[in-house]
Fold this sequence. Notes:
By secondary structure, the protein is α/β, with parallel strands linked by helices. Helix content is 31%, strand content 18%. The strands form five sheets. It has a seven-stranded mixed sheet. A six-stranded parallel sheet has the order 3-2-1-4-5-6, with helices on both faces. A two-stranded antiparallel ribbon has the order 7-8. The longest helix is centred in the middle third of the chain and has 20 residues, at 131-150. The model has no long low-confidence stretch (mean pLDDT 96). The protein binds nicotinamide-adenine-dinucleotide (NAD).
Amino acid sequence: MVKIAVLKETAAGETRVAASPETVKKFIALGASVSVESGAGLLASVSDAEYEAMGASVGASPAVLKDADIILGVQGPDPKALKGFAPGAWLVAGLDPFGQRARVDEYAKAGVEALAMEFMPRITRAQSMDILSSQSNLAGYKAVIEAASVYGRAFPMMMTAAGTVSAAKAFIMGVGVAGLQAIATARRLGAQVSATDVRSATKEQIESLGAKAIFVENVAGIEGEGAGGYATEMSDEYKAAQAELVSSHIAKQDIVITTALIPGRPAPRLISDAQIASMKPGSVIFDLAVAQGGNVEGSKPDEVVVKHGVKIMGYANTPAHLAADTSALFSRNLFNFLSAFWDKEAGKPVLPDDDEITAAIRLTKDGKVVNERLLA
Ligand code: NAD
């Protein structure tokens, strides 16, 4: 019987867990045994007893890892902590392959087959397995809620006997999964919302959510969706045009949410100190990219920095701030992935070498680093 181990996360600030009671039950229904490290779900509001009630065994890490065939994590565990697992066991987690490149080598040496869930290709078949989407969606929501909570004014327009409160103006920069949810959330709270991106396909998406699209017109951006839905580094000419456009728009905004990312690169700088200085005191900027280098000059992870009277904030790990929901979706992403490759006869998941998903997510196998993106 294939054994699945669920580890308690050890990274600082990580509150999520890689399996929920629901997915534990589903894995067991597929014929697996599941062993959960004691306390693994506590910070995501899941008790040991809930896992046990679904049929998991709960124990200390050595017992959980002993003879494990599949090890689940939200982030990659310390390679030194990985002991006693079955030879060639799979490590299925968000492994931050570019950021933690040296650790990938250690996983290879340790003899695990490391599968990086953030490398899941953006194809229809893999949509339900995509941890970046599920986590970004909730992060986009949370960014707006957190910005609203430190903003010293209200979001919606209110007409009261004592006078009128005007609606907040919110500007969303970067309209991927997080940005779309940020637009929707700011709209629900009653803000007047505008948004921008470098990919032209987002224009229609912005407008369909009832927000105003603010786009660079004189220099071409990225046609359509962009490869795999991802942006690339823009030309200097584009950057200059974008900076000019942002400068004229941002001074009138109360709330700015930045979400721009480029895979495998530091986050693009979208807001300069001079632009911050042009904003009204009391405005709030939430930099969702702060952990990837930041879109905003001067933003610091997990701090509210006040510059020119503007509050600049962002979390090192935004999904960890709504761990119950993000864990539930992350867990389903992992289950959807493993169950899609479940081989009934073998009684375990099997990854065909020639599958597009295998090629994309497999980092290590048989003691070697095998992923093209890491070897390039
Ligand atoms: P992301 O997190 O990589 O980037 C966030 C956004 O920032 C993107 O929209 C990007 O274009 C934008 N950006 C980058 N540089 C910028 C700059 N200099 N200025 C302004 N904006 C900039 O993106 P994401 O949220 O992961 O998703 C991107 C796209 O992929 C979306 O259209 C989404 O619908 C699509 N997607 C498809 C699938 C699938 O089909 N399986 C899954 C997930 C996402």
